[in-house]
Write a structure and sequence with these properties.
Distance between the termini: 52 Å
Largest sheet: 6 strands, parallel
Number of strands: 6
Order of helices and strands: EHHEEHEHEHEHH
Shape: globular
Strand content: 15-25%
Strand order of the largest sheet: 3-2-1-4-5-6
Amino acid sequence: MKSMFVTVSTTSFDELIAAACSPPALQALQSRGYQKLLLQAGWGSLPQPQPSSSPAAAVEAFRFKDSLAEELQSADLVISHTGAGSCLETLENGKPLIVVINDKLMNHQLELAKQLHRDGCVLYCNCSTLVETMQSMNLSALKPFPPGQPEKFASFLNKVLGLQ
């Protein structure tokens, strides 16, 4: 069963949750072959079930889990807020990612989304363009995220601290 996972991590981003489970988004999801939508709502509101809006897609929601590793591994597509940790964890799992900018926050989100998009690793949008992005997405054009090289950072720190 092809599934999409939406996460807001430990934040509250009701606009993203509402946009992702709106009837037009569910229609876009189904038209792309997804049969399951899993929503992680964080501190925000859990969506109210609307059984008549999408009988063909299973919609489930929860607030928090100790780890989202299982959800990330089983997802065919991840839609996430633009938190750095959420983006990197998703990309390190090799999952296609759409990042959604919270226009109400003035922070690093737009810069991070633009850079990851320039690198070819993600698609990005805001809540008002999420459905359009889902309808037009070409996930095969996304590039794998390059693996980190922690040994280079460790070597740098060792030199700076005079341990080498």
